[in-house]
Amino acid sequence: MACPTCxxxxxxxxxxxxxxxxxxxxxxxxxxxxxxxxxxPQAVVAELSRAEWLRTEKRIWRSLSMSWRLRRTVSAGxxxxxxxxxx
Length: 87
Ligand SMILES: [Zn+2]
What we know:
The chain is mainly α. The protein folds into two domains: 1-39, no CATH class; 50-87. The chain has four helices and two strands. It is elongated and about 70 Å long. Zinc ion binds next to loops.
């Protein structure tokens, strides 16, 4: 069996994880990302379609622009009395 990280053959020892066998603990840790990716169901990946992504992005931008507008209103409101106090 070959180590999924470095490709060297692992006959005994190493770290076993399910069907995979790594040559060392370092190799095992280095391959963590691909192991996690393996565990993500295809359905979840399919759900995160481009359309879904764009919708999420739009929502983020909308809430951002809303908070900017709010901040501008607040600072305008805070500046108004000062202007009004001037003779
Ligand atoms: Zn290895």
